[in-house]
Design brief:
By secondary structure, the chain is mainly α. Helix content is about 80%, strand content about 0%. It has helices at about 1-25, 30, 35-50, 50-70, 75-90, 100-125, 135-165, 170-185, 190-195, 200-205, 210-225.
Length: about 230
């Protein structure tokens, strides 16, 4: 079953890459993912002037490679049978866990994995391909690191907020789209360098124009940092 699921993920990733390459410039891949706001942005700006389209192609290509790697590393049936027979012999001399304890442990691990994957997905959505036109090479390299750090940190709080139902999936899509759009417009690496000592909350508020989204971000940080 696991191999079948990995195979399906790999096929879906390939389809998503193909759609992104050929129709991503007009936002079709975004509409298919129900990210309608960003789809409209892509449609009106031709993939955010090509930069957003290229970024999404890179992300889709990386996902294809990741899914392909997972599929190749999936355990074979024979190996699974051998290991399971060994575990049966060993289990006779070990105390058995109750069904509820096993289920709870499994759910905890699954939730942890899903939460981490969700955080990475959100961070990748926020972290745009930066095209710096101003600033020294050193400032541009430093700005790239600051953008990546901000994306990962803000994604962590957004992920928690979705998990704890502080915000809806629609709110999440609106926030990630707004961050992505604002960050694409910043071509001066010095903008980020000037904010190197500022919190991601301050940077997030600086990037958002919508008062409703600003309030949402402030509420999230108030909830988790009080």
């Amino acid at each position: 079953m696991k191999t079948k699921r990995l195979q399906e993920n790999y096929e879906n990733s390939k389809k998503d890459l193909i759609i992104t390459i050929f129709l991503g410039l007009i936002g079709t891949h975004r509409f298919l993912k129900k990210d309608y706001k960003m789809g409209l942005v892509f449609l009106c700006t031709l993939g955010i002037f090509g930069f957003g389209w290229i970024r999404d192609i890179v992300i889709s290509f990386k996902k294809v490679l990741d899914d392909c790697s997972k599929l190749k590393n999936a355990p074979k049936k024979d190996t699974k049978n051998i290991s399971s027979s060994k575990s049966k012999v060993e289990s006779k001399s070990k105390p058995k866990k109750t069904t509820s304890a096993k289920s709870q442990e499994k759910n905890t691990k699954t939730d942890s994995i899903n939460l981490n994957e969700k955080r990475k997905e959100i961070a990748n959505s926020i972290n745009t391909i930066s095209i710096w036109e101003k600033g020294t090479p050193a400032q541009q390299d430093f700005a790239d690191k600051l953008v990546e750090r901000f994306s990962n940190r803000i994604a962590k709080y957004l992920c928690w907020a979705v998990r704890d139902k502080l915000i809806s999936d629609d709110d999440l899509n609106s926030l990630t789209s707004a961050f992505q759009y604002s960050m694409c417009k910043i071509d001066d690496s010095r903008w980020w360098c000037d904010k190197k000592n500022m919190s991601e909350k301050f940077i997030a508020v600086s990037l958002l124009d919508d008062e409703k989204l600003v309030k949402t971000i402030k509420d999230i940080y108030t909830h988790y940092t009080k």
